[in-house]
Amino acid sequence: MTNQLRPNSSRATQTIVLLSTTIVISLLLIMTNLFLKSAISEINLLESVYQHSETLNGLIGLNALGQIAKVLCLILTAIFFIKRFRRASYNANQRITHLKYNESDALWAWFIPFLNLVRPLNIMSEMSQELSEYLSKRGKVIHSNSFAPIIWWACWIINNIFAQIVGRVSDFEGLVGDLNLTATLIIVSQSLNIIASLAAIYNINEYNKMEKFYYETDTIDAEELNISTNNILPSL
What is the C-alpha to C-alpha distance for residues 134 and 55, in angstroms, rounded to an integer? Predict the structure, then answer.
């Protein structure tokens, strides 16, 4: 007899809440850097820098606080996302015996350099496709979007590249040109982060719907097993 499935809906909800929080922080960072670019555009050569120094320092400080909050939120999001991902892999392996990747792969795939650029996407795509086929064989027709994980993963990779660029450029040495470039890069990076977070939320919601059908078919299979056992016992 196969092992019981473990609940994963609460982990999905927690991950979505954290992803939504990162979206809010990204929006605030975009607004802050738009104000920063506006303040920079009002500066007329170096004599006006001192007149706007208080505004610039305030926006730079607010931007730094936002970046710290973003990092903390991303760390929490990553923890909950990987926990949900690992649980999803465990459940999938309880019902689909021919999966290429197991629960351990779903964990360590995120931490091995270079492999973490492709392996999580491979695992995610395999689980989504195989679970959809598993459910359709049991009368649950699921139209899963095979491109959704790819779009999310591409946005996430591009966003991480931009984040590295922003980290190298944002030294804030006091030059107006550097501030303007940094603000522009942050706006682009946070916009990509919003798209990646929305795509991640979409993928989690879609897979969560399939997992709910998962539990329903698991209950039906158990009831059918009990019925067949009850029919056999009287004849023994």
Answer: 59
Angle between helices 119-136 and 176-232 (to 10 degrees): 30
Q: How many helices (H) and strands (E) does the chain have?
A: 6, 0
What DSSP letter does each residue of 58-100 carry, written as one string? Answer: HHHHHHHHHHHHHHHHHHHHHHHHHHHHHHHHHHHHHH-TT-S
Contact yes or no for 155/196 (Cβ under 8 A): yes
Closest among 231, 224, 236 to 1, alpha carbons compared:
224
In our burial notation (b when 16+ CB lie closer than 10 A, e otherwise), range 107-122 reads eebbeeeeeeeebbbb
d(CA 62, CA 32): 7
With CA atoms as reference, report the closest residue to 178 among 30, 36, 32, 27. 36
Confidence band (pLDDT; 50, 70, 90) for 50? low
Model confidence over 56-74: pLDDT tens digits?
778 888 888 998 999 999 9
